[in-house]
């Protein structure tokens, strides 16, 4: 009888250890991807004496879940004279960015601003007219409060099947981005177009199937087990996206190259 009790205690202890380990790795992944602040937040970086480049947007800009294209820009010697400010917040829509544009962008007195926002508008079904109005208001506030050059970026594909229903809807939002850039005098950076060229070459592109568990799984694999974002994308049969929304390192390179070229042309 005593042996049985001891055996049960060992089983319980083993189960507790396994559960604790699982919770630990989940916590590491969840905190690192969803709660941890990126490098160079407005609160940290806006007081720098170097000219500020503010990257405004949502999680793709924040870069804690998926490839960090702003970090890539910081590592480029030709851009060493800039202070890169990461004004990306997970889950933000265009309305959310508009609500904080004065504190997170205008207050930094930037010389340049990139805007990449709208994926969550598409996901949330924000009416296209409202999205257009928000973009125009964002640009208007920046132009009224600064002398910054502004670049609007088109939205990356959602899933890598360009013919899927959500990517057909996405095309309307990207058209609004390009038209808003033209009407406001902002520059336009063709992120979607460059990425579409790459994923169009795949024989069996993956359709959009984003979920929070999938995103958390990607975060755990990267932060707890050290797998690269590219490896995580590869296992899922994807090229540029780790979870149908957020970037692999290859995806981040596409945006970094476009942003770096734009900034270099300003000099």
From TrEMBL:
InterPro entries xrefs: Ester_Hydrolysis_Enzymes, SGNH_hydro, SGNH_hydro_sf
Domain of life: Bacteria
A Pfam family assignment: Lipase_GDSL_2
Record GO terms (molecular function): phosphatidylcholine lysophospholipase activity
Domain SGNH hydrolase-type esterase: start-end pairs: 56-212
Protein name, entry field: Lysophospholipase L1
Organism name: Saccharopolyspora antimicrobica
Taxonomic path: Bacteria, Bacillati, Actinomycetota, Actinomycetes, Pseudonocardiales
